[in-house]
Design brief:
heterodimer, A: mainly alpha, MetI-like fold, 0% strand, B: 533 residues, alpha+beta, D-Maltodextrin-Binding Protein, domain 2, Dipeptide-binding Protein, domain 1, 8-stranded mixed sheet, 17 helices, 20 strands, globular
């Protein structure tokens, strides 16, 4: 097992190198330099000034030199400074992580506690009324454009009923509230974003759960269990459910990179300062160090997520092992 | 009896006078303005910032030596007065005394010197060094007097001293490009920096010791909401006090009892214009009659009516219509398709084969208008032009290109026939970089390749004189030549549209906008919304 993990970890290095080379080339293929875009058509900013700025940002050097310089810093875990405001890229990303993580964890939590029972319940009586309604409901949620649903909910709860705040994560006088006031205020701001970001995820998990449960219920050991007269509850929840939940563990592992990912549309509509907007704006501004940092972050998380999923799978399912694998 | 009556009259006059005085001048302190914006500031060091969000916030925290008053004339800010000597080679600034930085240290000429040195330092990532590189020497005569000597007279240089002055004592030992000061600035301005949460909000509080006077509004909160529909929904909850509007929002969506009750709308000509520029190196546009014909064939009032819902005016030159340089006697050419057809046939373009398109030497008259993606307004303008030119037999294609590709591949490389674009205008009318024939290199701003010796000469002269009347004459001459020569089809100056919560008092719209007297805005105690300070 240990040697398997070490081999997998070593395998990450060339993969990561390849990813960064490809990403670095692609973002530089897009026309437009950060200095041109920032100072676009401003008659006060002359050509000479823009050339000087290019030089200060190191953009006048050949691409491979820029890449090697960047890689040299990455090895020392230095992600460089943003071209937008010269702040450390690390700081810019770190300050966005808490809110992104909170919203993603909350929605992941709600997705699981809603979708898993829905899937199980559907699987018990497949293709009957409840299953069909659930199917329609979750697919509706999946198909609905986020921005549209968000605007409808904002209009209903924010304006017509005036129960909830529309945008942002804190009230303007947040700092003057006591601790309970702060928690209450944050929760009120998070209700709509979490609902909107959960609804789209219900379809996937509930469908996985449903099919995996149907499959489990058709296994010979279920007949055995029923035949020996176990109560139905015990058959479903002890024997079938435990086996059916296995694939869901894999999905959980695969959602790790997603925890630090954000959605531009969703964050923009609710005015949430998350990772999605940071990345999007970096791309629009051709803020190369920030783009590359996010690419590396995404790649590393995805690879670790896969690794963790594989390990967890081996742990929960004794049939799978990585020993003596060649 | 008479005297008693007289006394009574006097007394009542005094009472009335007192009453009026009381009601007019009893402004209350307190409350906050919550401004909504789709973009966050990038840095609050003004000499490094090039985006409008950064300038908007830092202009509340910092002062320059000079500033523009409500009628767009230069007045003193940190400088009390200035003298222009040696035919404009030398400017002597006399600084105000008893001005303090927000941390209590006195402001002196050394701070200005420090700012100037940072501006011309090649390691500073500032886009604004150009105007300051023309300075030959900068001398501090005493703590409150500065002498600036230019290599040659440079009139726009005066307004460049409106650049915010930074505190030497706090930044001397710092690397300006990366200092934390950019996210917690200390200035001399009417508002002090309080907090900044990236992509969320920036909070300022009033500077009670501001040298002009204590601002009435206690807090200024700049909220970032990147989505326009969310901004509009927030207005409906009264969560935002001040927001810019689109023409559609201004005319239709805010035209209901709710907005009439809680908000006031403002409309002021913006500092920009939209034009159709011709690539003058292309033989299609070299004949003046053709450019004139195109101008006659397009109805600008129609464009304003459809695209801006009437909220703009026809442009007749490259200056701000409400500024001193603009010549109001340059009248827009009438919409006259017949005249256009006549001019075109004089230039040899007639529909000889009756297919509906003008032709000459077997070639149809057609060209492509390019414009940038993401600006619905411009796309509509292009379509209206396309329609109107079709009426007189000219075939137009429209090409819409993503902004950075548009700049890098089409504008800089001059690979276009006609371009639909806009210019933002600085308060100073100097237009040298856009119209001078020397500014046609790749990446420079005379990308249409305009060349006129008289305009070149006038642009240079206008830069060399500080006398506003003389400068005015030069710029008005430039405007007349440009409108006659039609290197651009000048289209329109859109209005800037704002909405402001109606509890704010003391707003006096002027040519410069509404924000110039922000420190005079106030809210009556009974209507104040944000009470905590």
């Amino acid at each position: 097992m240990l040697s398997y993990i070490i081999r997998r970890l070593l395998g990450i290095i060339p993969l990561l190198l390849g990813i960064t080379i490809i990403s670095f080339s692609i973002i530089h293929l897009a026309p437009g330099k950060p200095t041109t875009i920032q100072q676009a058509l401003n008659p006060k900013v002359s050509l000479e000034v823009r050339e000087r700025l290019d030089k200060l940002y190191g953009l006048d050097k050949p691409l491979y030199v820029q890449y090697i310089n960047w890689l040299g810093r990455l090895v020392k875990l230095d992600l460089g400074r943003s071209f937008g405001d010269d702040r450390l890229v690390v700081d810019k990303i770190l300050e966005r992580i808490p809110i992104t993580l909170v919203i993603n964890l909350l929605s992941l939590f709600f997705i699981f506690i809603i979708a898993v029972p829905l899937g199980v319940k559907s699987a018990l009586k497949p293709n009957q009324a409840f299953d069909k309604y659930v199917t329609i409901f979750v697919f509706l949620g999946f198909a609905m454009p986020t921005f549209w649903l968000a605007l409808l909910l904002m209009n209903l709860f924010g304006i017509q009923l005036a129960w909830l705040p529309i945008s942002g994560i804190k009230s303007l006088d947040f700092e003057y509230f006591n601790i309970w006031g702060k928690i209450g205020d944050l929760s009120r701001h998070l209700i709509l974003p979490v609902i909107v970001s959960s609804i789209g995820g219900l379809a996937g998990i509930s469908r996985y759960m449903r099919s995996s449960m149907i499959e489990a219920l058709a296994q010979p050991y279920i007949y055995t269990a029923r035949a020996k007269g176990l109560p139905e509850k015990s058959v479903v929840y002890k024997h079938a459910f435990r086996n059916a939940i296995l694939p869901i563990v894999t999905i959980l592992g695969l959602s790790i990179p997603g925890l630090l990912g954000g959605s531009v549309i969703f964050e923009s509509i609710f005015a949430i300062p998350g990772i999605g907007r940071l990345f999007y704006e970096a791309v629009m501004m051709r803020d190369y160090p920030l783009i590359m940092a996010e690419v590396v972050l995404g790649a590393v998380l995805t690879m670790f997520g896969n690794l963790i999923a594989d390990i967890a799978y081996a742990y929960v399912d004794p049939r799978i092992g990585y020993k003596n694998e060649k | 009896m008479l005297t008693v009556l007289g006394l009574k009259l006097k007394l009542s006059l005094i009472v009335v006078a007192f009453f009026i005085y009381g009601s007019v001048f009893a402004q209350d302190y307190g409350d906050a303005v919550v401004a909504g914006s789709i973009a966050d500031a990038r840095t609050l060091i003004p000499i490094l910032a090039s985006d409008s969000a950064s300038s908007e916030v830092s202009s509340m925290v910092f002062n320059g030596l000079v500033k523009y008053d409500k009628d767009i004339n230069l007045i003193g800010d940190l400088a009390e007065s200035w003298e222009i000597k040696n035919d404009g080679l030398v400017i002597i600034f006399h600084l105000r005394k008893n001005i303090f930085w927000h941390d209590g240290k006195p402001f002196t000429a050394r701070d200005v010197e420090f700012t100037y040195k940072k501006l011309i330092d090649p390691n500073t990532k500032t886009p604004y060094s150009g105007d300051f590189e023309r300075v030959k020497s900068f001398e501090v005569l005493d703590d409150h007097t500065i002498r600036v000597t230019y290599k040659e007279p440079f009139a726009p240089g005066l307004s460049s001293w409106g650049m915010a002055v930074m505190p030497k004592h706090l930044l001397e030992a710092e690397d300006l490009n990366v200092t934390k000061f950019s996210r917690r600035p200390i200035g001399t301005g009417p508002y002090k920096f309080k907090a900044w949460k990236a992509q969320d909000k920036i909070e300022l509080e009033s500077n009670r010791d501001y040298f002009e006077k204590r601002p009435y509004i206690d807090r200024y909160i700049y909220r970032v909401i990147p989505d326009e529909s969310t901004i509009f929904l927030e207005l409906q909850t009264q969560g935002l006090d001040s927001v810019g509007l689109t023409p559609l929002q201004y005319t239709r969506q805010t035209d209901n009892p709710f907005f009439k009750k809680y908000y006031r709308k403002f409309r002021i000509p913006s500092f920009s214009y939209v034009y159709l520029g011709y690539n003058l190196n292309n033989p299609k546009f070299s004949d003046l009659r053709i450019r004139q014909a195109l101008n006659y064939a397009v109805d600008k009032t129609e464009i304003i009516k459809i695209v801006l819902l009437g909220l703009g005016e026809v442009a007749t030159g490259p200056f701000i219509p409400q500024g001193w340089a603009y010549d109001k006697n340059v009248l827009p050419a009438p919409f006259d398709p017949q005249k256009a057809v006549k001019l075109l046939s004089e230039a040899g373009w007639v529909d000889s084969n009756g297919d509906g398109w003008l032709d000459k030497d077997g070639q149809i008259f057609e060209f492509t208008i390019i414009t940038n993606q993401g600006n619905e307004e411009r796309i509509k303008v292009a379509q209206i032009i396309q329609r109107r030119l079709k009426d007189i037999g000219i075939r137009i294609k429209i090409k819409i290109v993503e902004w950075s590709v548009f700049l890098a591949e089409f504008i800089e490389k001059k690979k276009f026939e006609a371009v639909l674009l806009g210019w933002s205008l600085s308060r100073d009318p100097d237009n040298y970089d856009i119209w001078h024939s020397s500014k046609t290199k790749e990446g420079e701003f005379n990308f249409i390749g305009y060349k006129n010796e008289e305009v070149d000469r006038l642009l240079v002269e206008a830069r060399r004189t500080f006398d506003q009347e003389k400068r005015k004459a030069y710029y008005q001459a430039i405007q007349r030549i440009l409108y006659a020569e039609q290197p651009y089809m000048f289209l329109y100056v859109p209005d800037s549209l704002f909405i402001l919560h109606s509890r704010f008092q003391g707003i006096k719209p002027a040519p410069i906008g509404i924000g110039y007297n922000f420190i005079d805005w106030w809210v009556p105690k009974s209507q104040q919304k944000y009470k905590i300070r």
